Amino acid sequence: QLQLVESGGGLVQPGGSLRLSCAASGFTLRYYAIGWFRQAPGKEREGVSCISSSGGSTNYADSVKGRFTISRDNAKNTVYLQMNSLKPEDTAVYYCARQRDYYCSDYVRNVYYWGKGTLVTVSS
Question: What pLDDT is stored for residue 71 in this prediction?
């Protein structure tokens, strides 16, 4: 049974850091790209970042470039999102999602399966 479980969310002060994890099971992670998305209160879900199956290609939303870093460890069946210099506007539920293929092109529209999300709150 395919499963994605996010963890690592919580409350952090502005300027702080968090690392989110996405643990995958029920499929062979190394064959698929993985995306991170977020949904803030009252807003639509948006793409944050994506990493190709090998890790050789990454995409970032302009709003997080230079602050967030996506990575993966296929041996551990886990994808990470390191978030630094967090801002109040980063507050959202963060989801990881398996893509339909190994690449990240048009990753916002090529989601095959969603995790249930983890809440990140940036506030003083």
Answer: 98
